Amino acid sequence: MAGPMTITAEEVNCLIHAYFQDSGFQHAAFTLRMEGRLDNSHHIKKHIPRGELVELLSKALLYSEVEAHWKEDGLANHCKNRFSLLEHHVCSFDSDEQSHPSAQPNGGSSSLAMVGDTKHKRKSVTPSSEDGHVEKRARREDDDSESAMAVDGTPKTIPKEVKSLVELQPSFTESVTKKHKTKGATLPESKAVSVLRAHKSEVFVASWNPASPGNLITGARDATIMYWDIPTNSQDGSVVSSLPPTSKISLTSSAKADLTSLDWNKDGTLVAIGSLDSVLRIRNASGKTYLIDDHHKVSQGPIFAAKFSPSGQWIVTASLDNTSCVWDVKDRRLHRQYRNHEACCLDVDWIDDSIFVTSGGDCLAHIVSLSGTKPIQTLKGHTAELTMVKCNPSRTRLVSGSDDATARIWNLEAILMDKAPTPIILKGHTKCLTSVKWCPYTAPEAHELVVTASFDMTVRLWDSVTGDCLRVLMDHTKPVYSLSFSPEGFQLATGGGDGYLHLYDVKTGDKVWSWSAGVRLGIFEIDWKKWGDISRIALATEHRAVVIVDPTKLHGVQRTT
């Protein structure tokens, strides 16, 4: 007989660490990992599904609810007080129901009834399909099982209301109106979708080679990168799915070496790789090492971003050690380390080949020249960590995204002329931002568009000149992690923690196609590239898979005018 179940502090710490990472609390996660010495734990390498801690707490709360309402002859099913994780529960009944707990005849079978007003009590858990936000959940148990263990260990039949909480929902939508059910966590395929399954851990980053059609590099949590040669002719998705990577490279054996960024130079000959192990790596298009530099490792600074300058002559990094570093790519040497932030440096982008911008945990963005050491301008106004900065295609304007739930548009031409920065503030999100992107195409006489995604599960499309919110896209049921415009700017792709990829028409805001990776299997990154008439979308997913979508096979997606 198996011994009693045990829960170790190490397991709890790993769950909390995963929760911090899921919620975007990277610094708290890093601190817990160091102080709890989680790198020495075999649990840290295990795959913890996104939202696992919240899921376990929810189940514990349901158990506590049943336990509190269980009477000798049944359940008290008229309690009006809701349960809370942090408050002691005291039952409250209507005066005419106080002494009438649910009872059943002696010797009869009992069923586990819902406590209280089911319709309202479970609304936050399983939104109705009327508002378009039905949770896509795959059941862990056998699909045909309709029984569960009651509090006393006796098998009980699950009533219809409880069963709806774990019922298998459709996990694949090939069009707006046509849905297909899939079981478990198997990723669905279609003629337009290919699923590549060579990675052994969550895939965090994916990037197409800008100069070589079909050449893709992907990076995973276990510090493994893979090079792929995806056929660009018209093939069925199942044929592409059987392809192995052309090269598989394990960069390090370190336990904390999650890959954080991939960036190609303009001619596709070199790719820069950022990692939590504090080492900058540059490899060529075939996977051979061009440069390895561990300058950030001196101060134990994981690298969050690494980007080539427009010409490819320089590369700049953003690190937890509060600094940014610039390397001379041709000479393969460190040019300078910049210590301008009072908290971690979180993102970087190039304004031109000699000026770059950094954002940090100190709520500031600094504009820095390669010829100096101090900022030539500092952008202020955000009230929480400034997690991302992106220049528009012409590099005349900058968008900054923050944990304060706002984005700001900055006029770089005015700033570089030493005029006081007066940003346009984009307000509307209710939680911290996760991604910002500029639309790559702007029609004559039209205003540039910028899109933002947030932990509030929405995507917003903005007029970057007026600051007006033009569209609010609310199809995701969990935080949205990634955004990508089509190369022409006509469509927008969004991916989130609910495992859904949605494609929208930018002009109308209509959703034109959707695909799901499955329950709680998030889409971490989307890269949409076009080479001539060839167009492909790459997804980095939590399911340890790389997904390739051929948009030319999707009705209503491709548009050239």
Write a concise synopsis of the structure shown:
The chain is mostly beta strands and 561 residues long. The chain is built from 7 helices and 38 strands. The strands form 11 sheets. It has a 4-stranded antiparallel sheet with strand order 7-38-37-36. It has a 4-stranded antiparallel sheet with strand order 8-9-10-11, with no helix packed on it. It has a 4-stranded antiparallel sheet with strand order 12-13-14-15, with no helix packed on it.
Could you please describe the fold and organization of this structure?
The chain has 561 residues and is mainly β. The strands form 11 sheets. Strands 7-38-37-36 form a 4-stranded antiparallel β-sheet. The model is unreliable at 95-185 (pLDDT under 50).
Give the topology.
Layout: H1 9-23, H2 26-35, H3 52-69, E1 70-71, E2 74-75, H4 118-121, E3 147-149, E4 155-157, H5 160-166, E5 172-173, E6 179-180, E7 193-196, E8 203-208, E9 215-220, E10 224-229, H6 237-241, E11 247-250, E12 259-264, E13 270-275, E14 280-284, E15 289-293, E16 303-308, E17 314-319, E18 324-328, E19 333-338, E20 345-350, E21 355-360, E22 365-369, E23 377-379, E24 386-391, E25 397-402, E26 407-411, H7 412-416, E27 424-426, E28 433-438, E29 449-454, E30 459-463, E31 469-473, E32 480-485, E33 491-496, E34 500-505, E35 511-516, E36 523-531, E37 534-541, E38 546-549
